[in-house]
Amino acid sequence: MxxxxxxxxxxxQGYHCYVCGGQGDDLHxxxxxxxxxxxxxxxxxxxxxCRECHNKIHHTPQLDKKLKREYxxxxxxxxxHEKYYTIKEIAEITHMEEDxxxxxxxxxxxxxxxxxxxxxxxxxxxxxxxxxGGKL
Length: 136
What we know:
By secondary structure, the chain is an alpha+beta fold.
């Protein structure tokens, strides 16, 4: 992970733990790297946490699920389920590179897409599913 990304997550949270509000130490991937390695550098998938809470998240399924529910709600505010988005629109909303999104489509990490007016478009629900590591 690049240092700039880590710094942006820390600044976004005011250097406080996302869970308890204490002094943060670690970055936590809400959708685990093993589940969706392509999301490891997606800023919305990262939270800054203290070591104690980081440990709790990994050993308390309820806390892990709570973070995933909050993340899902956040993603669903960005993408409408039934709307189709161009690669450029997805890139603008997620702050990901267009090339990266295209690669995810080619690798079938984003499962469904359509060609509309000579443009690749992806339905919002499929973007949400992808950003949630393949699960809704």
